Amino acid sequence: MATFEHLSIDAGDLREALNSHMDEATWVVDLETGEVIMAPYGESLEEDGDEPWEESERYMVVTPLESHEGFQIMEDYVETLPEGEGARALERALRLPRPFRCFKDTLSDFPDLRERWFKFHDAKMLEYAQAWLEDNLPGARLRL
């Protein structure tokens, strides 16, 4: 089994990649440098390269979180909140159509819960980034 002790991956970049869903591009890790790169499909990522990145063994795709995982993070957050108007409003938002949008919109009505959400979400995404690294690039380390 390959190990990747030589790689140091930027935690913020990996969190962004795990949280990003795009149709025209994806995120990849350069297995030589550890850089996390947004990679448009069918294009070369190398300066003098003709070969699309998809045909190279140099890059590993970072598969973003599934929507149910993102939803679980929101549910977990709401469970940490004390009883009150904000917690009830966010619980309701998660039951509405388009819960991601409703959750975000509801947070804008509660600035203190919004700030708390960002800290909670960042911490959860750091956990996901560490788990992704352990599963996909054994030996590599996150750089905070």
Plain-language structure description:
- There is one protein chain.
- With 144 residues, the protein is of the alpha+beta class.
- It has two domains: 63 residues, no CATH class; 60 residues, no CATH class.
- It contains five helices and five strands.
- Strands 3-2-4 form a three-stranded antiparallel sheet, covered by helices on one side. It has a two-stranded parallel sheet with strand order 1-5.
- Strand 2 and strand 3 form a beta hairpin.
- Helix 1 packs across helix 5 and helix 2 runs antiparallel to helix 3.
- The chain is elongated.
In percent terms, what proportion of residues is strand? 5-15%
- Average pLDDT: 95
Number of domains: 2
Task: Note the total helix count.
Answer: 5
Order of helices and strands: EHEEEHHHHE
**Unreliable stretches covering 5 or more consecutive residues:** none
**Annotation, overall tally of beta strands:** 5
Rg, alpha carbons: 18 Å
Q: How are the strands of the biggest sheet laid out side by side?
A: 3-2-4
Distance between the termini: 26 Å
Q: What general form does the structure show?
A: elongated
For the largest beta-sheet, the strand count, sense and barrel status come to: 3 strands, antiparallel
